[in-house]
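Illustration: ETC complex I subunit.
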Amino acid sequence: MSRHRAIARISMPPRSAMQSGKAKSGRWILTFTPSEAKTIDPLTGWSGSGDMQSQLRLSFSSQEAAEAYARANGIRYEVEPAPAGSVIKPKSYADNFRYGRSENWTH
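Result:
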């Protein structure tokens, strides 16, 4: 089976530029690396391949859950560390007027 030859990547995707809150920011994603190159269809000019696993994108609540799924299904995997800016430091508007603050004022 080609399922056992493919290598999966477990990562936490960064927030999009359009996202300012914490929604969907703590999810871990398991994706498969492509096992074959894409080819161009001579009739339509569209690119495609017979690799169905590259279309899969599985979502998990934690890195441990994603790793457990990969181990249980015999999938080789690599883990990418979480992005550096994934932790949001809570701030309040009152911090802008705090006595003795060292950072610049923000709106």
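Reading the tokens back as a structure: The chain has a mean pLDDT of 81.
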